[in-house]
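Budget justification aside, the reviewers requested a transparent look at the raw inputs and outputs of the sequence design task funded under Objective 1. We therefore reproduce one unedited record. The lines immediately below are the structure tokens for a 121-residue chain.
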């Protein structure tokens, strides 16, 4: 059975790039446009890993991360933040909120797939 990854980013073209890379690596992908949309899509659905942007409308990635880490079903789901943000302060905030990895855009799809393969259990 293939593993399911939730990709949360407000850019549909960016979600497409990530989705294609992950599908090529054998993963099933669910897409969400922002944190709010992602919460509706999760709704008890089993996901093995989440790839999430930081800067998004409605609900940003760090707020979303804090919300899911407080939910029993997703408390231990690994989250990779995939963002243009590269400041240490943001990374520290992400780690404190429960992010397991931080990949900075622009990124190499292979680099992301490697991180996913390492964290997706």
């Amino acid at each position: 059975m293939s593993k399911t990854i939730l990709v949360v980013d407000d850019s549909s073209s960016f979600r497409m790039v990530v989705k294609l890379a992950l599908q090529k690596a054998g993963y099933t992908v669910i897409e969400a446009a922002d944190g709010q949309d992602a919460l509706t899509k999760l709704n008890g659905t089993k996901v093995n890993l989440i790839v999430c942007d930081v800067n998004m409308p409605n609900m940003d990635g760090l707020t979303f991360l804090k919300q899911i880490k407080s939910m029993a079903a997703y408390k231990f789901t690994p989250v990779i933040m995939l963002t243009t943000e590269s400041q240490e302060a943001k990374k520290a905030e992400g780690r404190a909120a429960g992010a397991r990895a931080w990949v900075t855009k622009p990124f190499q799809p292979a680099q992301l797939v490697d991180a996913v393969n390492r964290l997706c259990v």
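Strands lie at 4-8, 28-32, 49-52, 79-83, 101-104. Residues 12-24 form the longest helix (13 residues). Computational costs for records of this kind are itemized in the attached budget.
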